[in-house]
Amino acid sequence: MSLRGLQTGTRGSASGVPVQSARHVIPARSRGALRVSAVAEAERTATSSSPAPTGDITNKLKYLFGKEAAETPKDAYHGTAWSVRERLIDSFDKTHEHWKKEDPKFIYYLSAEFLMGRSLTNTVYNLGLEGEYADALRQLGYDMEKVADAERDAALGNGGLGRLAACFLDSIATLDLPGWGYGIRYKYGMFKQVLKNGYQAEQPDIWLTSGNPWEIRRDGLRFEVGFGGRVERKKDGNKEVTVWTPSEKVWAQAYDNPIPGFSTPTTSNLRLWDAQPISEFDLGAFNAGDYDRAMLDRERAEAISAVLYPNDSTPEGKELRLKQQYFFVCASLQDVLSRFKATHGTKFELLPDKACFQLNDTHPTIAVAELMRLLVDVEGLDWDAAWTITTKCLNYTNHTVMPEALEKWPVKVMAKMLPRHMEIIEVINEGWTKWLGGHLKELKAEERAKRISAMSIIHENPWNKEEMLVNMAYLAVVGSSAVNGVAAIHSNIVKDEILNDFYQIFPSKFQNKTNGVTPRRWLAWCNPELASLITETLGSNEWINDTEKLSALRAHASDPTFQKKWAAVKHAKKEKLAALIKKIHGDSVNTNALFDIQIKRIHEYKRQYLNVLSIIWRYKQLKKMTPEQRKKAVPRVCLIGGKAASAYDMAKRIIRLVTAVGDVINKDPETKDLLSLYFLPDYNVTLAETIIPAAELSQHISTAGTEASGTSNMKFQMNGCLIIGTWDGANIEIAEETGVDNVFVFGVRADEINQLRKERKNFKTDPRWDEIMKDIEGGMFGDKDYFKPLVDSVNNMKVGNDWFLVANDFAAYLDAQEEVDKVYKDQSEWLRRSIMYTAGSGKFSSDRTIREYAEDIWHVKPSRPAA
Ligand code: 26W
């Protein structure tokens, strides 16, 4: 069964009749009428062996939390979550029994980050249990939404890369693909961002205090992971073997997080590893009164999976980071090999037919050396056989072209922490450069030497010639079968620029896999009102698992009746967001204003700076207007949200500029109903689920060629939010699908950047730009000394200044923003475009992306358990 032909499946019914979870067809009040077909209902309840939820919820509260009744939404959450957990585990067990029997080929997604967010709502809806649990909670006097609010986000990621991994898991399960995620069970996830006097401050994310109903601790399922120590050659009969004796060992303890698919019986898995000490407690040291040493092992071990590194572009280069990477890779590969051996013994040549791995950026790339170590040193395979298996099993995805984001580990750090792996990498590099020598034999000697050293996995540190580095991206490319970028333009830049040498050697390895997002969480569950309107209009909810069907909305784009309903849904969401802004900032925003949103990690290449400068200019214009003129102005509520890596100073200054400008304009009686700017703190998955449905304009204004893809752009598109953006990342493909005239595109193109950077020092800045820079420097928003580095970073004084060409795109950006106002004034045109965005979003479902990975890279097939 080819995947592309796959239509929406059903949980439990072999009949192929779509099971429509009523909630998504018609709002609650008329749920009865369209409840799923009697047959499916009977089957569904048949499967659900557990008691009606109400009793079960209070039962869980009583026996797990010692509470007689749900006194608080948090109680109701705990009771509900632990009740739903059992249905989830039922589905998990059935799925894995089936896969055990079928022994299909598996895909394993190795990622240092999984930005899962909350699970209750997604799990209840994906399992089709929303009806009965909403009823049960109502009987207990609670509303599902309020109860869902009591859950902490699982924020085990920084941003795009981590959230993409989470969306991929939802699609892998929904497409019935035998696939697991593997990662780290961080005790503390992405820091909590709070604003202190307008400045970002970080607080630890203590998310596990009241337990986690969505994980199963797999008692006894643990693997030893070693670090440091020495490597010796020993004789084993007539064979010489290599023995690595680590100086430090920890346990990797497995925790399973079942991943339910939607409208299918399949529930797959995310296995996260928790670091535990080999020796629980050093009683000897304790008795000797050396209490610290008694706990030392525990602290050292637990530190490995303690906290997520909060950088999303610059590696901190800390040893603990490499320790984390090796920790989860080593445990995951041991786990997969032990399951393989249980079925196939030592026929490792079969491994590539039964397992493949996707390296989510370079963070898990040590897997190349670790799989070689396990196959050669532990399983005794010869090098070439092991290398063939390794390269067949591994695939690498690149998510950024930022030079500073490409990990290079100092050889001395690698050699100290992973001495055997450093040896293996040296042997790999020797084989690689020797092979290259042969492959490039027709070149002149010095040209050949130059090419070979340019592609050497181990190379000098360009900034410090004494230091040798291991280039993890090069190791990933040489050690993988497929290498892909995450949007068309990005994959071209990977091929033509950052990995061009390798592309010339293995062109067939390089592919594009344009990102996607799950339409379950990012439309159906976070915007049920819009989802119901779509289902009502299209006549079924099959679009949720087949988003190409959304294209049928094009026929309704200019229909005033439909537009009216569409606008009503959006307005209701704006009111909800306005209530949240009131709660956070205490101000009531004008909900008839255009809601203009930029939410993503704070980074100079994402140019939140450009957005703020345009708001300052808009404010100055409003101030100069007469009350008459102001009446014709399009009111805007501007919202910016996002975390800055804790050590990223310039990004923190950008956040302060946003709050400082907001403080001024939001208090200006003359203009505050026409323009306001709020920084929404602690941007995370849950906040995005509230903001995105309410957005009318979203900003994706990175310097062309810097944003690999972007995925929030896709979530906004699905929710009928228009885009102002540069010709960069997936913006380009969104414009192609939506109709480029419907997108507010501006700015220089990627192929102009290098030249413009050379000429930047002599760039004639726009007078409006000059004016604003003077205002900031002059203290119009206070804190002028704190903002000086921001102003200086984009002035013409120094070569390399304004690296992200903010000044070059300033005028075009203001023009595009004026175009936005013009179109917004014509609401029928605006709404037509809004509907065209959703209609054109079919391509950007992560189901399409995963189908392409499965067919072009992983070669895995769906295997669906019986209902
Ligand atoms: C080592 C520090 C570090 C940590 C994370 C370096 C780089 C990263 C990630 C690759 C950064 C990231 O999240 N990249 C984003 O990945 C998304 C998913 O593919 C893309 O949509 C975004 O464009 C890209 O910035």
UniProtKB/TrEMBL annotation:
Annotated source species: Edaphochlamys debaryana
GO CC annotation: cytoplasm
Compositional bias of kind Polar residues: 1-13
Residues bearing PTM N6-(pyridoxal phosphate)lysine: 715
Family membership noted in the UniProt record: Belongs to the glycogen phosphorylase family.
High-level lineage: Eukaryota, Viridiplantae, Chlorophyta, core chlorophytes, Chlorophyceae
Record-level GO BP terms: glycogen catabolic process
Function, as annotated: Allosteric enzyme that catalyzes the rate-limiting step in glycogen catabolism, the phosphorolytic cleavage of glycogen to produce glucose-1-phosphate, and plays a central role in maintaining cellular and organismal glucose homeostasis.
Cofactor(s) needed by this chain: pyridoxal 5'-phosphate
Protein name in the entry: Alpha-1,4 glucan phosphorylase
Domain of life: Eukaryota
